[in-house]
Design a protein that fits this description.
With about 180 residues, the chain is an alpha/beta fold. Strands 1-7-6-5-2-3-4 form a seven-stranded mixed sheet, sandwiched between helices. The longest helix has 14 residues. About 40% of the residues are buried.
């Protein structure tokens, strides 16, 4: 099989959502980050550019936001899990590399509710982070419901989701008004 480009790997990761597809995309991006983001940007569009992404395992959402926001001059902020989550390896590897290069700001906190912390505790922490970083437009494609509630409590009123249209991915906005 011929070596696939980042654009095709991005499309496959978005369509499949499998850890294997995400690992291949992460490896390809780590080899050539700038070129890979340019390739991904050709397949991303939307109504609004998110300034913050909540991602548990969905590498493709963070890549799409980063590729789409490249021209804005701002660094993308990513709220990611601080503890191991099944399937988080590719996202964690890529975020570490991008943070070292100064492309993203990563805020880590526990995103899975349990007896400690509860969903309420996580929502409160997310609200504090959202207020602290002045998040305006947040992508919640990979966020649990209590994180969305925390974003609302933190003052975020415009949310986006990444929608796969087959030939491209678009950020669609919705919000609490």
């Amino acid at each position: 099989m011929a070596e696939l480009g980042v654009g095709e790997l991005f499309r496959r990761a978005l369509a499949e959502g499998s850890e294997e597809a995400r690992e291949r995309l992460a490896r390809a991006l780590l080899e050539d980050l700038e070129g890979g983001l340019q390739e991904a940007a050709k397949r991303v569009g939307g109504e609004v550019v998110p300034d913050t992404v909540v991602a548990r395992t969905a590498l493709e959402v963070a890549v799409a936001a980063m590729a789409y926001a490249r021209g804005s001059g701002r660094r993308l902020r990513v709220i990611a899990p601080s503890e191991p989550v099944p399937g988080w390896g590719p996202l964690n590897t890529l975020l570490s590399a991008m943070e070292e290069n100064g492309l993203v700001e990563v805020y880590r906190l526990q995103l899975i509710a349990s007896t400690r912390p509860t969903a309420r505790d996580i929502a409160r922490r997310v609200a504090k982070i959202a207020r602290g970083i002045s998040a305006k437009v947040v992508d919640v494609s990979d966020a649990p419901p209590y994180v969305v509630a925390g974003l609302h409590a933190g003052g975020v009123r415009t949310l986006t989701v990444l929608v796969d249209l087959g030939y491209m991915a678009v950020f669609q906005k919705f919000g609490f008004y």
